[in-house]
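User: Working on a comparison across species. This one is Excisionase family DNA binding protein from Actinomadura hallensis. Can you predict its structure so I can line it up against the others?
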Amino acid sequence: MTDLVLTVDEAAERLRVSRWTLYNLIRSNQLRTVKIGRRRLVPVDALAECLDKLSEVAA
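Assistant: Here's the predicted structure for Excisionase family DNA binding protein from Actinomadura hallensis:
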């Protein structure tokens, strides 16, 4: 089964960035997250969206 959501640590690991950098992406609304209870989770498809947005800015 493929994961639908990732923890902040897992998402940071997949993007190869620090937790601090990932939280900055979340705070700046560049990375979409969902909150379930007290947990903040990152939908897997949000990682691709974030990379697309960052690629557009860098181009």
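For your comparison, note: The longest helix spans residues 44-58.

User: Helpful, thanks.
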